[in-house]
Amino acid sequence: MLTKWLLYGMVIVLLAAPACADSLWTDTAKNRLSDVRARAVGDLLTVIIVQDSSTVTQAQHVTGKSQDVSAGAGAGWFSRFPGFAVKSNRITNGTGAATASTRLDDRITVQVVEVLPNGILRIEGVRHVKLEKDEMSLIFSGLVRQEDVSPDNFVVSTQIADQRLETKGMGPIAEKQRPGLLSRLLAILW
Hints:
single chain, alpha+beta, 16% helix, elongated
């Protein structure tokens, strides 16, 4: 009987003591159910760059001009001038065509640098790659709506407004692609 009262006493003491429990989610633990999309300054976001543009311009023209002037022999003071006739006919034809196309497929991780009052994210990112003596830089910036960011934290470049994409190359390969000094001089003169 004593053990029964002792057991009741222990239960009452335990129930009267304040309960404390630790959370399963600490500040450093990663919540598998949370959304990982970029939404604040400093967050990272991966941009899938898909640029495919082409232009075709064609022009054609045909012009013609015809002139006919004639005069008879003069009378009086002008009798010394014989009659004359001038006939002129000019036709020009011209055609031209120009075609240009650009294609770039890439990925770059950018950082949110500003969140505008309407929730739009301003993003910027730079990637530098140096191989041997050649260096290539890819610079990307733009505005993206938070709802266009996928649950995996990706956005396609076609959904980015005010987009700026710039590629720069330096080194022996880039130098070989530039026209030579004589070619540049001739281009200036003609």
